[in-house]
Amino acid sequence: MADDVGGDRPMSLPDWNSLPLPQQVAQMIVVRASGYCFDHQIQYPALEPPAETLRHWIQSLGVGGVILLGGSAVELAVRSQQLQDWAAVPLLLAADIEEGVGQRFSGATWFPPPMALGAIAGHDLQGAIAAATDFGAITAQEALAIGLNWILAPVVDVNSNPLNPVINVRAFGDQVEVVGRLAAAFVQGAKQQAILTTAKHFPGHGDTTTDSHLDLPILPHSLERLQALEFPPFQQAIAAGVDAVMTAHIQIPALDANYPATLSPLLLTHWLRRQWGFEGLIVTDALVMGAIARRYGPTEAAIQAIRAGADCLLMPADPVATVQAICQAVDAGELPLEQIHASLDRLWQAKHRILGHRLPAGDTSHQWETLPPPPLVLDAIATPQAIATVQTILEQSGDRQGSFPIDGLKPDELGWNVILVDSLVHCPFLGLTSSAIVIPEQRGYALRLIDPHSPCQPGAILPARPTIVQLFVRGNPFRGAAGLTQFAQQWLAALHQTCPIQALLIYGSPYGVAACQSATSPDLPYLFSYGQMPQAQSLLMGQLFGAIQSNAGRSLPFTD
Q: Residue 85 has what pLDDT?
């Protein structure tokens, strides 16, 4: 049954010429907010404003969009309608949902990272393309169902550097042709719905060893190298109809010796607009990221980004000061008013696309200005087809070594289930009912959850018992490194010396497999999954033990 949680206020799109200059400029700004409905639930107070501040930014300042993070899919449906109700001009509501809506909003479908599709492409390119198309279509359907209208995906960077700390498994892979074709397929799948998509991070963030959330990567690549490796996936995504391109906070001196890409007229205007003919939105990556914030003032970067050719400013540190500074730059003749107006034209075209689809075919009137908001259909979330698509991707992208299922424990024998994670505080994929915890416990393996802050030292506390080791490891922004941490390597090496390890289960990054073998033994049996979510855990538990018992005691068959 479809649940309509929307209100009755019409969604209207006034002529942007009717707005005063400060509101015109504010329409170019996308602020961040919590997906939760109440202030006491805000998880990142330095980045997510309280309700009254956010309401002021939307109602009085007139910002054009909000990027959301946190909460359940149902909460986000309510939250998105609340934000639209505050706005005089319909908002762009965006989210970084590179792994499906469930990556950010619980209850929706959580896909494995895009590199899983690249792994499938290695043995079945057409199957991977079909899965990428479904991935885009399902993500778009679920996003729209909870009120989002802008997907900040796909990542079209070619992850040519295994040590890349920020892109890593977020990319479709390290092969330029595969990345381009899968990114285009994702875009084409999403375009079945009236929603915006985004190719990121231009001109290509796949060969960095510095996390741009922390500092500015500088790449020595030549134009010839960029045209051969970094550029083609963006060109394929544009040809597929992607609506927006997000800039990278990286500097490539061969293209611009003075500015990072986000602030570079040579890259944004010369290459993206003139050379490639891209007519969609150019949106900056978050302006609060260290690569920009550490080198430019909170308003200087915004002015330079617009001068370079950006249409949308994502997450400026101070939206009010940013609007004031840009208006002053226009009044002083430092920014051409025509450039602001060209961006507004593109923004309005994008907003027309997400509103105008609801008119009857051939209607050229302005009826869209008084249409009520669409119903938020919750039964479009986590459908059986979506769950089956995720299962297929997980099954076809995994890896293994050794003989499975294992024999398990002898009667009255006890074992260890050692789970190593980067942070137990921020661990959304593990809970009391997670398969990675519950299933081994049912089989006689006592749980040991360990992160770098655990007081125990490697090898000092576990008596020798049969052991399974589960590692949740992947490159993530702000982590500063890819692959296994030193903490994980030390624990693996110590366990290998003291406990008979029956199997390693590695969730997340394929780059961690070799490091695990180096810390233990090249012959050690392992199971690998790109996914870390509960569905991936259940799959590996089934492969590890064979048929397993659910919490209710019902037998769940698993096939190899």
A: 96
| Residue 496 a catalytic site member | no
Tokens 């597929």: give the residue: 240
What one-letter code names the amino acid at 554? R
396: left (phi over 0), alpha (psi -120 to 50) or beta: alpha
Residues whose CB falls within 8 Å of the CB of residue 103, separated by 6 or more in sequence, listed in order? 96, 97, 110, 111
Q: Annotated catalytic residue: which of 201, 205, 213, 496?
A: 213
Q: How far apart are CA 178 and CA 85, in angstroms?
A: 42
* Regions of the chain with pLDDT less than 70: 1-12, 356-377, 457-461, 475-483, 547-560
d(CA 256, CA 208): 17
Burial call 150-185: b when 16+ CB within 10 Å, e when fewer: bbbbbbbbbbbbeebbbbbbbbbbbbbebbbbbbbb
Examine the residue annotation and report whether 213 is marked as an active-site residue of this protein. Answer: yes
Quick one: which of 422, 514, 483, 478 has its CA closest to 161? 483
Select which of 96, 256, 285, 451 is catalytic. Answer: 285
Q: Hey, how many other C-beta atoms are within 10 angstroms of the C-beta on 86?
A: 16
**105 close to 98: Cβ distance less than 8 angstroms:** no
Q: How far is Cα of residue 389 from the mean position of the Cα atoms in its chain?
A: 18
Q: What is the pLDDT of residue 460?
A: 64
Q: What is the distance of C-alpha 536 from the center of its chain?
A: 18
Helix residue spans in 30-124 (DSSP H): 51-56, 73-86, 115-121
- Model confidence over 414-454: pLDDT tens digits? 999 999 998 888 888 898 899 999 999 999 999 999 888 88
